[in-house]
Amino acid sequence: MRVYVDEREKSSEIPYYLLSAGFSVIFKVLDVGDYVINDLIILERKRLDDLIRSVYEGRFFDQLKRLKSLEKFKAILVVEGNLLDIDKYTENPRSIEAALVSAVLSFSIPILYTRDSRHTAELIKYIAEKTQKFGRKTSAPLPTYRKERKPKTSDLRAWQIYVLSSFPKIGPTLAERLLNKFGSLKAVINAQAAELMRVEGMSEDKVKLFKKIVEEGSQSTPGTSLDKFINRK
Known about the structure:
Blueprint: E1 2-6, H1 14-20, E2 24-28, E3 35-37, E4 41-47, H2 48-57, H3 59-68, E5 74-80, H4 93-105, E6 111-114, H5 117-131, H6 156-165, H7 172-182, H8 185-190, H9 193-196, H10 204-215, H11 226-231
Parallel strand pairs: 1-2, 4-5, 5-6
Antiparallel strand pairs: 1-3, 3-4
Helix pairs in contact: 1-5, 6-7
């Protein structure tokens, strides 16, 4: 059985336990996760102290986004340590609990809990044994993650798609449909709800959220209307 291990895990005893258990352990710089098991499973390991730091530093949600972006791999988050000790590391344990709930509900990433690194190694061994028969016949490319790049300044159409795509539940494809329908970013923003719903993919819920983001506060806060901003010269 083969396991790819991120270079930063060399200081852990986990890779060496796996070696002693007969695994082929290959150290690589991984873009996503800490362990790649049987070319099928991506495992992100978080010690309790590292979990808390990553939440407060903002790294945790970026890592969840990367794990969520994987198409050919199943992502698993492993939290290592006793959650009863969380008060030793932070005065606000609820924020950490909320982050873990978000991992499951918002990113659909399952979480497994282990006592220590030895327990984590045993878990990896068990997962590898269970998934061995489903492993790919040929070695799959290791997972990669590309950050979204902003368009070039001169590419106005790309910028319009980029701006619309930043709205919740509106990706590049739907953004392009909206621009094709209405002709400009300004026209999309000023369109009536009924007009927006005529565009394929724009459900009533999406339209309500879009209009709420665009219009919220424009009546109660003079001078901040998005319409005034768009129309100013």
